[in-house]
Design a protein that fits this description.
mainly alpha
C-alpha cells in the first residue's frame, strides 16, 4: 500500500509543477498585455517552459496508464493529445512577431489549461489523502502493541 502513496505523492508534485508552469505562462502574457514586458522577453519566458510542461503532461499521462488508473488516464488524454498535435504541427511556441495578435487566444488557452490543472489537482489531492489514510490504517493493523 505504500507504493500507492508514493505514486500519488509523485503525481501531486507533477501536478504542482504543471499548475505553476501554466500560471507562469499566464502571468507573462498578462505582463505583456499591461506593457511590463516587451514581446521578446514575454515570448522567451513562455517558450522556455512549454516543452517541459508538455513532457511532464505526457509523463503523467503515461504513468497513469501504466499504473492502471483508467479514470485519471482518460481525464488527461485529451490535453496530452492536444499538446502532441501542437508539437507535431510546430504551433507550440509563441511567435515574437505575432504575439500581440494572438494574445487573447493564448491567454484564454492558458486559463483553460490552468482550470484543467486545478481540477486535476483537486482529484489528485483527494486520492493522495485517501491513499495516506489507507496506508496509515493498514499500518495500525500490523503494529499491535
Amino acid at each position: 500500500m505504500a507504493w500507492d502513496l508514493i505514486f500519488w505523492v509523485l503525481c501531486f508534485f507533477i501536478n504542482i509543477a504543471l499548475v505553476a508552469s501554466s500560471f507562469y505562462q499566464l502571468l507573462s502574457l498578462s505582463d505583456l498585455e499591461a506593457d511590463h514586458l516587451n514581446p521578446f522577453e514575454a515570448s522567451t519566458r513562455v517558450n522556455s517552459v512549454v516543452l517541459p510542461e508538455f513532457v511532464l503532461q505526457g509523463f503523467l499521462c503515461a504513468l497513469l496508464l501504466l499504473t492502471w488508473h483508467w479514470f485519471m488516464f482518460l481525464l488527461t488524454v485529451p490535453l496530452t493529445a492536444y499538446h502532441l498535435m501542437l508539437y507535431l504541427n510546430r504551433k507550440h511556441l509563441v511567435d515574437v512577431t505575432e504575439i500581440f495578435r494572438d494574445l487573447n487566444i493564448e491567454k484564454k488557452f492558458r486559463f483553460v489549461k490552468l482550470g484543467f490543472y486545478l481540477l486535476l489537482f483537486a482529484v489528485v489531492l483527494f486520492r493522495l489523502v485517501i491513499s495516506a489514510f489507507n496506508s496509515l490504517h493498514d499500518e495500525g493493523d500490523v503494529h499491535v502493541f
